[in-house]
Queue: 4 jobs
Job 1
Amino acid sequence: MVTIAERLDNAYGRIEKAKQNCQFSETVQLLAVSKTKPIADIEAAIAAGQTQFGESYVQEAVDKVTYFKQNKALEWHFIGPIQSNKSRLVAENFHWVQSVDREKIARRLNEQRPTNLKPLKVLLQVNISGDDNKSGCHPDEVDTLAQFINDCRQLELRGLMTITEQTDDKQKQLQYFQQMRACFDRLKDQYQQLDTLSMGMSGDLDTAIAAGSTMVRIGTDIFGKRQ
């Protein structure tokens, strides 16, 4: 039976191979998506050296963050849709939020982020493929939302995130990711602190890295399929 440590090692190897194939020199971080997975699986990943974890379901995530609160090396990313009535829990418990796609949520996170904590690191989620089944702001809304977040005292704008439509058309997929990279580079000219372009998952990380992703979100290839 393949262990989580071995799967993590394989995932990092796949990232390095993808970088070599396209001669991409930037660092590509791996976010281990641990949503729906038990504490024991996360402990196994931590023991193998993983420190960044992504969660999508607020209450489940808060329970995990609380369980591991003594481990200061861990970084918790919220990557799912944010309901207004759950925004306070996200603001109080996470280091990063990758799924901010409207001003209302950004405002609530800013107001609800405790002042004794560092500003919440934020990625704007962009619906680059225009898929009705995916969350994210329209590309035309990015500049306005980025400006709003940059002006929020308790938020720190750090980049962009996307989940593209599922397609077997690699060229179409590459075009979406390239559009995201172009948007990221344009925004970075205005906000020098931007350093994170989160795109690519287990099934399409090679294409995402070829287009310039700096963070891939991997769940299945590390923890196995969700039950």
Job 2
Amino acid sequence: MPAPAPARHPAHDALLTRWADLLTTAREATTEAKTPSPVPYGEDLLTRWAEPQRRYHTTDHLLAVLDRVDELLPHVQAPDPAAVRLAAWFHDAVYLPDRSTNEERSARLAERALTEAAVPAPRTAETVRLVLLTRDHDPAEGDTNGEVLCDADLAVLAGSPEDYGAYAAAVREEYAFVPDDTFREGRANVLRHLLGLSRLFRTPAAHDRWEAPARHNMTTELELLGA
């Protein structure tokens, strides 16, 4: 007997509408006589974000990143807001905790899907570039598109102690197959990398709001890991 399908996220329909509006905007004035419906692409993405192996990289994370992008864009001069939002949708669309190529595979998915969906080639290429930036969250100075996406993706680090604790616990659950000592070492390396960045958050609005609490949260976690 097949396993029952997972329950749909409460924001599923709203997210699907949000996706359809974004894809329509991102296509601009296409010269193609007929373009594919946005709905199958959105449904595929939402199915991916709801996969059972996810504990942190879930639909809730997608929704949070999209909301943070919307918060930050009014404060910066991003040259392609549509590409930033598309990259938010695709940045963890492929996610297997035991793989180290999730960003590359997510970028390839974005390239295939957006090309097929009649998004202009320059915007598709920019989306792919932005997805790949989430490997290290270290955009070049002046890369405003990249700064907004990376800041939105890292905003979880600045949550309340309770929210940050829930985030850290969810990350550990995703890596439940990794022995404790190995996980602590790997997690500590990730935290050290982020803490070693001269600025975690590159946009002024995000830096002012989130830099100090994020560094406090990560330093505390690093201490708890015994690193």
Job 3
Amino acid sequence: MGVSTASPSDGVRVVTADYPPVNALPVQGWHDLADAVRAAGRDPAVRCVVLAAEGRGFNAGVDIKELRRDPGHSALLGANRGCADAFAAVYECEVPVVAAVQGHCLGGGIGLVGNADAVIACDDAVFGLPELDRGALGAATHLARLVPQHLMRTLYYTSRTVTAQELHRHGSVWQVVPRAGLAAAALELAAEIARKDGDLIRLAKAAINGIDPVDVRRAYRFEQGFTFEAALSGTAARVRDTFGKGETP
């Protein structure tokens, strides 16, 4: 359980999150993931990083139970900072990051995948931001990197999900494969990238980030300000208390 790393082939580092049962990460888990991705990117022997997860789903966002146990706002602030740290680590990784997604990719999972350079997904993968159902906001910045603007807004307001096949049609998922072939497909793409010159691939990553039209770090932190406002006003707790109970706040 936790974050682990492996080097299955020349130039490729795999960073894997394992937080049963659904990969909802605690505050420290987000920072551990960020540290592992940054360490991989800084290693001169690494030319591509694969971001993966164990279990039935890739990522279910933050650990809501951890937030509920906190009578104040320290857990929320910690989750905000942890998510921002992990999302930035993926985006700013000095080499390309390939996300390998199975099952659910929700909330913070969208932040990770939306900031990755390429996405390989299982045919059972679903992507979405159920934030409004959980008393939170955020990661629209990253969902907008996966789907067109109006679809992003509709998905955000409704908390609906989209499939890997739909994202493949939009061009944001590179390949959809059976679950049994996910690891192999992700490693195959990573190995192809890793065959490039190490210095040149790092320059390419910096150049592509430099021409992005949106400052993803600033945009996401702007969104998080409204998450905290919802918490201070009591709105977040009111909505969060209905989560999983089939109630409308």
Job 4
Amino acid sequence: MEGVTAVPSPRSEPAGPSRTGRTSLAAALLSGALGAAVALLATRQEWSEGTATVAGGAFPLTAKGSDVTGVPAALAVVGLAALVAVFAVRRAGRLAVSAVLALSGAGTVAAALLGASDSTALDEKAAQASGDASATVGALSHTAWPYVAAVGGLLLLAAGLLALRYGRLWPAMSGRYERAGAPRPRRSAAPADPDRPEELWKALDRGEDPTGA
């Protein structure tokens, strides 16, 4: 009975790391993909609004996230590419790509928060609308979309941190390709049929008697 109770113990040891790897992988994929999508969506929305004085009246102006700063959208794309590249590399390469993913998220957060109070884009539009290079926007207000972009950056950052911490437990695409590309054992040639005419001629050329036993 003692021998029977000792059997399950070695099998249960790899279950922990394997389960942790699958859980962290799913969390990183979901967090990274969702974070990139949220950040890209937020940059296409209205971040700020105001007015410009034109011919004695107030002319409404709006600025999208892409007008304010292009950094969050660019870093979201970089982060998404890094999330995919994590599975194409191993060891030091995986750590480097994971770091890029985390830095992309942190940069997205910083750029979004800086853009939440920026008025440069609307000032430029006010100058164009009024024809006065020194004109600035009035009645400036901001929406919540910059903070939504920051949330997307936080999700990318979380995916990067998960990759840095648990990436060594994740599978790699290169391993799959290596197994698929491994040389296959050569098949042995089928034995020659002595009754075939071409085999008879080959035997005669070799000086053999094809009719011999």
